[in-house]
Structure formats: structure tokens, C-alpha cells
Amino acid sequence: MRIAWLLGLAGVAVVASVLARSAKTRPSMAAPLSGATRISQAGARFRDAAARGDAHFDRLKFRASAHFGTGRPAYLAAYRGFADASGCEIMGRVLADPPPGLPATGGSPWRNFRDQWARFESDEVPGVTVEARLGDAVATTVTDAEGYYRLRLPMQAPLAHTEWRSVEVSIPGSDIVATHAVLAVSDRAEFGIISDIDDTVLDSKIVDWKASARLTFLHNARSRKPLPGVAQLYRSLQRGRSGDAINPLFYVSSSPWNLYDLIESFMTINEIPPGPILLRDLGIEPGYFISPKGHAHKLENLRRIFAHYPELRWLLVGDSGQADAEIYAAAASEFPGRVHAIYIRDVDPDNHSPFDRGVDSIIGRTSGVPMLRVRDSESIAEHARSIGLLPAADVAAIERDVARDKAAPPQVAP
């Protein structure tokens, strides 16, 4: 994708700034260098370090020079889908190369940077026929200009429980196959949860572009951190009052589809309950980690989910660093009676900032739906308990998880 070149340059600048910052701690008697020279030298050190005996980097350079790749499909990126009794929806992408594998450890900054570059430099393959099977049902489509495919199939059995089912997809005439995990939502669900990801589940530091860029380019799914208590909070909300895991959980984010595998791995590693993950096509907008202004896709995804489950009410969870308060307020107004509560995590809880004032100006515009600017997972749990959606015992478990997660070391230096 063309965006890879822009993000690559931004990433090199971030890596260079990290190297330059570390270099400041080493005394030198040489004459001061200009900023441009320091960045140039830091970039040269990066290239030298990455090139030393690293076949992966050589392959990456070849892919970058080819830019659009071979144009031959080699990998099906099968994203999680969702379903009700009437049918299921799936979406995926055909690529010329699989995404980078998950490192066994936190990985070096160089390895993580190269892997992120590879994700954004993905070679999508348009015009490919994709076939999906669910029981006896078969559906086919052709990938669009960005390599995406979307399909809908009828369900083959009644939904007695909220559970995961499998849909097999393949490229006819090849041995390329994949399986979509599909969340089938039962009518027994008490309510649903729709959550943002960055600074709502994943600690992204979205309001500090330098820290956000370092996390994006120099870390991986093993070294990124969740917000304290979020895993236990979402497990408890899934169980709800009944104690059964019947309440569906959806993730709706402004992160690009290029990061899907990283997000999925991050949630698995941190035992965050799985759910369909609805992201966005980055297109030609650079700097998604600098909180882009366009979030219309989020409201569109909310509408899709609300329409798919017309009898279900929802909890909406977001953060103050983006437009979540405004988007969720619009959804509550558009779908009266369908939202239990809206929780907006405060991205800078120790300061009264413009982010806070932005959220506070929207609170009260939600037609009787409580919207709270909250400090942490405990605050969300306590309010959910107060409106009868969580038992008190779960609040205590979430408090313990918050304390444990806060004791973990930070993911980036202050």
C-alpha cells in the first residue's frame, strides 16, 4: 500500500529520535551536530544494524522495491465475523504475503519496526474469487480493489447459546484456505458490549504522538500493555447477571485492518475476551496513531451491529482521546432505548484537560442515557453494578485485577 512509504518514513524518524535520545547520554568531545545530521546518522545506524545477517530485512527490501508485489494470492486474512439466527456476516482480505509471525519475546525495536513496516506494506490482491462454506450453504464473491471480500451466509442451526462457529473460506483452484471464527449471538443474551480499542483496551498513549509512535513501531503484541483490569471487566460483563458467557462483545476501532493480527494476538496473550473486531481501511491517510479526525466508519459499524440485533441493548465503552463520546451520543439518540450506559475512559485522569471539557460538553445530550467520564475499570464496574448489570462479587474481582495490572512495569519510559 502507498501508505506504507509515509508510515515508513514516520517510523524511521521515530527510530532515529530514540537512537538520538540514547546518544545524548554518551559524552562526546566532538563539535555539536545539526539535527538533520543526527537524524541521518541515526538512520544509517538503523540500516546497518538491521542489515547485519538479517535475511528477513533483505526480503522486506525486495518487497518494498517491488511495492505492489507479485499480484498472486498467497494468504487469506480471515477476520472474525458475527451472526444471529438469520445468517452470518464475514469479511476478510486476500494478500500476496502473510503478516509477520508473533515473536517469542518482546522482540528488539528493529524486529518490531520491520514487522510493522511489513504490515503496512501489505500487498493486497484484487479481483480474486473467494468461496465460503457453512454447512450446506455456499457463497462466492470477488475481492475489491483493496483485496477485501465480504459475504453473508444463512445459519444452519438454531442458536441455543452465544457461541463461536466456523466458516471455511478458500480460493477455488488453489490450496489456499482459512477459517473465520463467527460469533453467533443467542436471544438469551442480556445485553451486549461495544468497545473501542486504543486507550480503551490497549494502552496506546494516543494523546502523546511520540509515545504512541514508539509503541506502534517499536513494540509488538507481547510487549504492549492492556489498561488495568480490562480483561476481568470484560469477562464479567460477558457473564452479566446470569453468570454465563452469553453477552456478546464487539470491538470497534479506528485502527487499520493492517494491525488486525497484532490486535488479535494481543487480546489472546492478555486473556481479553474475544469478539468481532471491526477496524477501518487506512487508505491514504497517514498518521493514524495521531488520532485522525475522520471516525464516520465507527458510527456506521455501530449502526450495523444495532440493526443486526434489534432486540438487544448495549453498553458502549470508549475514551476521551478521540471522538467516542460524540459518536456514542449520536448512536444513543439514533437508537432510543437501545443503550444502557456510555463509559468514556479519561486518557489523562490526573489533569483537567481539553479532552475532559470535550466529553463534559456532550454529557447530558444523550436522551436519558447515562454517560460517565471514568477514571478506570473499577469505576465502570461499580456503575454497571449500580444499574443491575453486574453482581457485587465481580466488582471485587475487577478491583484485584486493577491493582495487579498497575503493579506491572510500564511499556515505555516516562
Short summary of the structure?
The chain has 414 residues and is an alpha/beta fold. The chain is 36% helix and 20% strand.
Architecture overview:
The protein is an alpha/beta fold. Helix content is 36%, strand content 20%. Strands 1, 2, 3, 4, 5, 6, 7 and 8 form an 8-stranded mixed β-sheet that branches. It has a 6-stranded parallel β-sheet with strand order 11-10-9-12-13-14, sandwiched between helices. Helix 7 links the parallel strand 10 (249-256) and strand 11 (277-280). It is globular and about 55 Å long. It starts with a helix and ends in an 8-residue tail after the last helix. Mean pLDDT is 78; it is low at 1-47, 49-69 and 284-293.
